[in-house]
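quick one: zinc ion bound model?
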Amino acid sequence: MSPSMAVGYAAGAAGQPLEAFTYPEPDLKDDEVRVAVTHCGVCHTDIHAVDGDFGVFSFPLIPGHEIVGQVTELGAAVSGLKVGDRVGVGWQGRCCGECEWCRAGEEHLCLQIADCGTWTPYGGFASSVVVDGRFAYPLPADMAPEVAAVLMCAGIAVYPPLRRYATGAARRVGIVGVGGLGHLAIQFAKALGCEVTALSSSAGKEEDARAFGADHFLLTTDQGAMEEKEFGFDLLLCTAQSGNDWGNLVMVLTKNGRLVLPAFAPINLPLGAASGSGPAVDFVAHQVSITGSFLGSRADMLEMLAFARGHGISPRIELMPMAQVNEAMLRVRQNRARYRVVLVND
Ligand SMILES: [Zn+2]
Ligand SMILES: [Zn+2]
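yep, here:
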């Protein structure tokens, strides 16, 4: 029996636009499910991958990892799912299951993580994907598919670090960047009971930031306003992809404060005094931490989905047909999406 064919949109090589791409549907392993994709969000990480920025993914590459769809086929060893179930799938589609991190329930830190993406073999800008059944998450019935799609990556990128670090007295939270991740992070931080400030280089974002729940708005290009906020934050979650003044961000952190990086933003940390190249005075003397944060565990994902549903977290979404994937990626690349683009299959 010849396999059915899947259709997707693939980059043939790094930096190339996506083109329609037809391929035989991969065979299912015992622990895998096939999911017919109905919706897939567009994330900056897709753009990094297509640009070849990670250097670990092979081409042709079908990106897309904010997936919602229906289970159409199950491997023999999959439990807890059945054909027809509506599921969400994020960036991680499998794990090695054997390393110390997988055994500890922190599968997102798997030592084989580069091979664990939903992109392998083919991602969500397609008619279907194949993933380990444990990484296909049943969705709340009353959650709109485009909302669930966005939560599968943007949601899991921002919720765990807020949950982990915005605790106890550390409640003065700054969300740096009001975009796809940032507009969700503002909502999650507010729902977690934090005093939330949105930091943006764009004054035009203030109204939206307040609508998402920000208590305060800080224009990062206003040096006077930034200096007034010296030691003003317990936690900064930096979601902005560009334009970050890292020295200023360290300045506004309180002593023992924490700067969390949940996205693959380009980083250049001039932590020294004055020009940035001197001794790292503030960074050391203030005992500031810089913390990477990568997605979350399976338990984090389930908790995030339940929290988002319970608190009415509502990403603002532009829907576009899957066939307009290149235009959608351009909107995200140019920071024109308000605030997340989700592609819809016919
Ligand atoms: Zn993503
Ligand atoms: Zn592992």
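The mean pLDDT is 94.
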